[in-house]
Amino acid sequence: MKIHYNPKLKKLARNLRNNSTLSEVLLWQSLKKKQVLGYQFSRQRPIGDYIVDFYCSKLMLVIEIDGSSHEDKYEYDVSRQKYLERLGLSVIRFDDKDIKNQLHNVLSGIENWILENTK
What we know:
There is one protein chain. By secondary structure, this protein is of the alpha+beta class. The chain contains five helices and four strands. Strands 1-2-3-4 form a four-stranded mixed β-sheet, sandwiched between helices. The chain is globular and about 35 Å long.
């Protein structure tokens, strides 16, 4: 399934990739180059009118990091997630602090999600 996006977001997505947070960099180091069960992820990927932190098209999986940029944006995040789910995407979220302090557990959570959803 091809996911469409707003082409106006390409430049912003590139800027976000070039100015990643520490937790994004840490998680990306473990997701890139098919390191998680052989699945290819992209980062700062435009989908519709949104940019998601990480995306795997084969799994139709979005991974979001909730850090300080998500504070006071609960309703926005809920609306955004509902939109992504209407497209048939699954969304899993991790706290910024968990990535910084418990990366192994985060990666285990991603691997468990993949194993449970690809049977």
